[in-house]
Amino acid sequence: MTFDLWTLGFQAVNVLVLIWLLHRFFWKPVAGMIADRQASAATLLDEAKAKHAEAEAAQAEVAETRAGLAAERDAMLATARKDAAAARETLLAEARAEVEILHDTAKTARVRAAETLKANAIDEAQGLALTIAGQLVARLDGPATDAAFLGWLVEGLAALPESQRAALAGVELEVVSATDQDSTVQDRIAAAITSALGTPARLTFRTDPALIAGHELHSPHFSLRNSWREDLDRIAAALGEKGDLSDAA
Prior knowledge:
This protein is α+β, with helices and mostly antiparallel strands and 249 residues long. The chain has helices spanning 5-105, 108-137, 143-158, 162-168, 183-197, 228-241; strands at 172-177, 202-207, 215-219, 222-224.
């Protein structure tokens, strides 16, 4: 068997040309496309990691803000109760002194006036308590406060008996907020309530600035109060219960 060197040479040249053509017009562009795809994938992964880190940071900030608001809320309520109680005791002490004077020297008309003075003292103490507490909480208005009150509303729903939560899932509930809530916030509130009830909730939204701050949930046979107005009303009620004075005729 013999080999034709010229034929073998031409075939070798053809193979080399074919390899060069494949390298230049096929493998090189394909390798470039693969490198571009890898770079794009790496960029997408980096962006996803950055978004995930931002979300975790935002979640941690909300949790920290909520904890701080809870502590500040408790401290403000304690201060309001303390200041209101001190003012009430001062006013009632003055009323008692006046009653003692009237008891010794006055007639029935003056004793009645003393009773009116006592009632006015209690009303003034309650009004002072509401004024002090209202001034303390006014500086907490904002999205962070709304988020904190939404968390407390969800905790209140979660604390209800399962049968009561099941009953609420079948009725229309009204969400009353202290400030106007845009559609994004309304969706967040609806998602939180749905999660607490375990089933989609039928909600309507209403604004009541008298709440000062917070969210409340109402239906024809159910109310879950969760606002600064409710906290202040409890303080006023507590002061009213302690305001009973008696005098001998």
